[in-house]
Amino acid sequence: MSPVPRPADLDAVRDSYDRVADNYVDMVVTTGLGDVRTHPWLRAAMDTFADAVAGRGPVLDVGCGPGQVTAHLVERGVDASGMDLSPAMVAHARRLYPHCRFSVGSATELAVPDASLAGVLGWWSLFHLPRDVLPHVLVSFTRALAPGGRLILATHVGDGELERTECYGGVPVRWTTHLWRPEQLRDLLGRAGLHPEAELLLHPDERTGPGVVIVARAPGPAG
Ligand SMILES: C[S@@+](CC[C@H](N)C(=O)[O-])C[C@H]1O[C@@H](n2cnc3c(N)ncnc32)[C@H](O)[C@@H]1O
């Protein structure tokens, strides 16, 4: 299953995140939303992932946004770096966490050697990928993972698509959020050659809708 098709709306998604980047960073800093340290269950999932991948090789945070999760992993001894589609997000990440490594790129064009990563994240960053593109991206993640390496992803749960024309304080955007049911994701991960290992369901609250965190493991013994 290769190469990964380029999403027709990739440029629109990049431009949209460039426009919301300032407000997104402000939201993370002032409300704690998006910061795993403020959410005990997300933090537990991320810290368990960190324990599983620390000392085993590089870890790539795909769609890292302003880099707060990448930096959290680095603090926990993980050889993590971040990559994001939006140059404005990456500029914030470099400013906020100058000791960490960040690059601009797309999940659809993963530029890492095969079997080179101990871990990969798709942390609230894969839901804009069109339904027919996500399976290809997951296959590219499987290829990039070393034997026994782990993927952690978090995404919004539901059926269908949400079209947004403004977000994060009324900033104009143009993007689609593709909702997935956990069993659909488990099936996609299995087809991509990964073994789903653990799952955390997030019930809706006053700020966000339902979500899911899934951890999956690449075949083979951990290196
Ligand atoms: C909701 S933000 C989440 C950011 C960060 N992971 C966090 O937890 O705060 C979604 C991020 O995914 C990035 N993104 C969207 N599509 C992407 C793609 N195809 N490749 C890489 N990053 C992408 C956006 O630029 C944005 O920074």
TrEMBL record:
InterPro entries found in the cross-reference section: Methyltransf_25, SAM-dependent_MTases_sf
Molecular function in Gene Ontology: methyltransferase activity
Biological process terms in GO annotation: methylation
Pfam families named among the record's database cross-references: Methyltransf_25 (PF13649)
UniProt keyword list: Methyltransferase, Transferase
Recorded superkingdom: Bacteria
Domain Methyltransferase: 59-149
Enzyme Commission code: 2.1.-.-
PANTHER family, A to Z: TRANS-ACONITATE 2-METHYLTRANSFERASE (PTHR43861:SF1), TRANS-ACONITATE 2-METHYLTRANSFERASE-RELATED (PTHR43861)
Identification of the protein by name: Class I SAM-dependent methyltransferase
Protein source organism: Pseudonocardia alni subsp. carboxydivorans
